[in-house]
# Entry
Amino acid sequence: MLIIYAIVMLDEQALGIMKELMEAFGPSGFEREVNALVKQYIEPIADEVLTDKLGTVAFTLKGDGPKVLLAGHTDEVGFIISSITKEGYLTFNQLGGWWDQVLLAQRVVVRGKKGDVHGVIASKPPHILSQDERKKVVEKKNMFIDIGASSEEEVEEAGIKVGDPVVPWSPFSLINDDKIAMAKAFDDRIGAFVLMEAMRRIKENGIAHPNTIIGAATVQEEVGLRGAQTIAHKVEPDVSIVLEVDIAGDVPGIKPHEALTKMGKGPGLITYDRSMIPNQPFKELVIDTAKQAQIPLQLSQMSGGGTDAGRIHMDRTGCPTVVITVPTRHIHSHVGMLSLKDTENTVLLVIELIKRLDWETVESFTAL
Ligand SMILES: [Zn+2]
# Structure
């Protein structure tokens, strides 16, 4: 099939939005800043902007057909201050899953009452550890955040208290001839970015679609798919596409069957994860659509973990759902990496799917 509308590869404006989204502050439960940004970008093109009472922001392009929910979560993995020591160090709990090995010596931003404070995650230095201790991984519970203070009072003075949120400090950059983007928070703001970009192009290019499109920047995914539940309840979708990152398997040490997608080889389609088995006719439609539109597609599977789709597909009496991904290296760390070409192809695939999701097609997903 020939795509006849004008589509440019992610332009400067889109890349600017991507950068701002990734650099915005917003661990699980603290998404106000990033979702205000989403609202600001999307309001000019949306027919309606809505919010639920947990913090998700959603926006619609109205039509006559089925309600298509596109969902991408905007919370990032971060931390929450759990105590302040007499000596002025901060202990923390995690918001979302963190691997101990990626934490030490990393810069973080703590958001307090008086604004952002920079610090570093540290532990007892190796110089004073025994030989045995040096070989062991330092656990999170033995780490602390150092903001350069020397007393509890100094921390208080800086406006920091127990319960304040923390995120990685990690500027967005383009590398490898500007083909690859490197940033924090790709999981899953790249999903939110893809759906915003797809809806912007649909609106600006006047692409006809047989449905109402609802894009949602969901909250609190990393702590248990919480925002997906409340927004699905609110919008009552007939069908849903969740946009997510995938674990790129083209990293040394990963066996081919452990992570199937590779960075730069096209969007992924999750065929199974711990939270959902996709609707099978819908899954086949994604495969056929990619083929027809000549968009590369990688079949994927995740034996651990889940996505917002885990909640959305069980909303009310059920909702046919698929998860489409952008393969991403090094997720849940300070620096993720993904291909702009994959991102572009994911946008194109979403647009092609939306064009096909009319009543007849959506009803066929569950017809016997
Ligand atoms: Zn994640």
